Hints:
Elements: E1 9-13, E2 24-29, E3 34-38, E4 66-67, E5 78-83, H1 95-110, E6 119-125, E7 134-137, E8 146-154, E9 160-169, H2 178-193, H3 203-206, H4 235-244, E10 255-263, E11 267-268, E12 273-279, E13 285-292, E14 298-304, E15 307-314, H5 323-326, E16 336-344, E17 349-357
Helix pairs in contact: 1-2
Amino acid sequence: MGLVHPVNIFRIRAQDLEADERVTIRTRFPQVLGVVAFLGIVLGPFPVSGYRFLYHDVWSEPTPVQWSDEVWGPGETLSFRLVEDSTWLDGFSSLGAVEELIEEAMSGWSGISTADIRWNVSGTATERDSDISEVYLEHGYAPGAGGALIGTRNGPDGRVRIDVCDIYIAPGQVTRSKDDIRNALIHELGHCLGLHHAGALWTRDVLRYRVALPTAWGADPAMSYGHLRGGTITADDRAGASLLRPAAGWEATTGSIRGSVLVKDEGGAAAVHVVATRLDGQGDMVESVGVFTNVHGEFLIRGLAPGAYSLLVRPLTIPRAHGALRYRAEADIRDTLQTAPVAVRAGTIAGPVAITVRRGDYRW
Length: 364
């Protein structure tokens, strides 16, 4: 896979806030989508955590941040407003056309049958409102295509909850193709759900060689870098969104795989990507869901449909999207395939599965 520049800036801005006031964590993802602001999260019960949720510290705080029920409860609709700006008309026939494109992007997530995701565009506003979720053009510092700014407050139980999410688009993007804008919006809406970047798979680079790929590798997740090639919501994206906002009864129909990844003769392999790929009746790979290991090399892959799965372990391939993982990741291990299928049953945790990897020659 092609090497990338491992540049990442991570900073916290908290100005002596009261317990119930908003805390914002800003993260910059150069060359991708600009600045994305993520919010503080509280401690949780699980000893391992996957890639797919927003965290302050993935090693010590494995509970994801979720929306406040007071703002967006189960079965409710979350409304966004479009902030009026004449620059929209450089690329759109009307503000109504912008609203339609945003709702088209929203439908990618709301179309997930296993998730309770309902949102819309409720109209336009002439000025921004910090208490209302909005889509707007950022004329100031807006590197990349755009970003998501998420605001949280402490709830009555002391847990940090999302209460607002703004999506901004860089003004220069409005004249790009509508597909490009829609796909960027799909990615940013995933952040608004509470999803972080997925593990970076390799299909974007493999495709240049015109290799016939199994269905499982037809597209990288939208929350990885698949949005740069198209707006497909993969099984990996669906699992993360469904775990954050599950449809009634869905979780009881799924299973999990628990295990650990060890570097031969050394110990646990931190921040490696473990991909569970479901096999059909003929043994062909049909869909994949991945997570990162924790600092001890442990992983827990949740939200899996019952069936047989193979496991693939890979190094973290695009570190700039994962600043908190990059400095502890095992960057020079070889890809390792666990060939013996793991059986996943509804309501159970398969494993523990132990996978030993060897050092390789991969470097960022």
